[in-house]
Protein 1
Amino acid sequence: MNVLENRKRALEEKYFLDAEMAFKVNSRRDRFLAQWVSEMIGITDIEAYVAEIIDVRFTAAGDDGVVAKILADV
């Protein structure tokens, strides 16, 4: 039974690591996208715009909310 428990623990750890990596990748992508869009449309306070995009990710419907916000701004 110890082998099965070790396997289960390893799969759980892999799941959490994968979820953490996906979160980091999405956050980084949103940050770069927000910086690019803010420079493109001439926003001077880039960090504030990046914070807006990050807030949209957490309050709206994830990727769809970010895309809708950026399309509305452009």
Note: Residues 25-74 form one domain.
Protein 2
Amino acid sequence: MMPTYVYKCQRCGNQFEMAQPMTAQPLKVHESCGGEVRRMIQPAPVIFNGSGFYITDSRKSTDSPKSQPKDRKKSKAGPSSD
């Protein structure tokens, strides 16, 4: 599969895509109007496959008693009336 490059013509402003091998030289001339073309920089696509990409995949369940603080009620400031 060849990468697809996006070009923009400096004369007419037209943008177009061209599938080319990575070893091919960039296009220089727009075929329609003869204007100079420049290859545009495009962000690489990111595909998340598999587990570990979501917040629910990396956390353990909070149902276990170990994940709850033991002294939650005793954390009040001030004197204790025990």
Note: The chain is about 5% helix and 20% strand.
